[in-house]
Amino acid sequence: MWFSRRNQGTSAPEQWWSLLFSPSQYEDFLGLVRAYFEKRGEQITIDDGAILRIVGNPEKPNMGLYNLAQLCHQAEYELWPAILEEHFENLSKTEAVLADLKAHKSDFSYAASHLTLRLYPQEGFATPETKVFSTNLEGTVLVLMFDFPSSVHSVAKNDAAVWGKTDEELLAIGMSNVRKNHSPKITSQMVRKKIPVVLFGEYFYAATYALCLDEYPQCLGKYGALVGIPHRSALIVYPVNDASVLDVVHELIGLIGYMYKEGPGSISSLLYWYYQGRYYAFHSSDAGKKLHISPPQEFLSTVFPDNA
Q1: Ranges of the chain whose pLDDT falls below 70
Q2: Residues 6+ apart with CB under 8 A from 74
Q3: Is the preceding peptide bond at 121 cis, omega within 30 degrees of 0?
Q4: How far apart are CA 65 and CA 60, in angstroms?
């Protein structure tokens, strides 16, 4: 499985377009996509799951449209044609990359320099042939990737098996390459006008840094941190020091949900609590006009021991 830099795999929800477009905007979006391929003499089909297929060319891989739609949703309509063209041109550049990868992927000295790790939504990587690792970030998986300037490609289990490396070795190499090649921009910001958070920003790998949060002690409080990984480009961290943390939970859940919807590269709409190397998920549901929040029991018993 492969993804353009502007086409990272995300599980598209039912009637996915209704989260981003009005019906007329959706038709405009589809019209531009079809026009791009018609100009190149290619016919396409687009199914309800936002998957585009080239008719009569089985060698061409399927393409997801959800992240492309998210990019267009964030831009003025006049910019959509340029966004689409850049997106699909980046995809076309992958053909040479794929040929080179096919010729050398069994050579671990070649592979090792390109290996990275990416967090993805679990539903988006249900295929058994992809090399994935479990995480304790509920609803996510960690995917071993080949990283190239214009595209990333998931590593197949069979290819990884040829190298004779343990999972621990592959994880260490992948994370080392993320640190070396994709350093995040770390800033302190006020979100929702009143909540001080630490924001990790890096276009494709910011969320991966949730896996090594202990390396950034300035982000952690006495009781760890609240963490959001709404999409690939953002890791939101709020240090937890005392019971006042309850004042920000509702706002953070709203912020993470909004950023998850906007994307691109959406990962999780959940708020997590990170403490002593583990993640625990908050769950929420709408009860009428009120948001009902269920904190993890471990969070309550640690931060509010007198009430446990």
Answers
A1: 1-15, 49, 59, 94-95, 124-126, 287-288, 307-308
A2: 262
A3: no
A4: 15
**Which positions ≥6 away from 20 have C-beta within 8 Å?**
69, 70, 72, 73, 261
- List CB contacts of 11: < 8 A, sequence separation 6 or more: 121, 123, 124
Domain extent listing, the chain: 2-92, 104-181, 185-307
Residue 27, H or E segment: helix 23-38
Cβ atoms 233, 202 nearer than 8 A: yes
Amino acid at 292: H
Q: Is 216 exposed, middle or buried (0-12, 13-18, 19+ CB in 10 A)?
A: middle
Bridge partners (DSSP) listed for residue 290: 287
How far is Cα of residue 283 from the mean position of the Cα atoms in its chain?
Answer: 19
pLDDT at 74 (0 to 100) = 86
Q: What is the pTM of this model?
A: 0.77
Q: What is the pLDDT of residue 202?
A: 80
Residue of 287, 285, 306, 283 whose CA lies nearest to 296: 283
Tell me, what's the pLDDT at 124? 67
Give 185-194 contacts, CB < 8 A, sequence gap 24+.
186/216, 191/236, 191/251, 191/255, 192/251, 192/254, 192/255, 194/251
DSSP 142-176: EEEEEE-SSEEEEPBHHHHHHHT--HHHHHHHHHH
Give the pLDDT confidence score for residue 19 in this predicted structure.
78
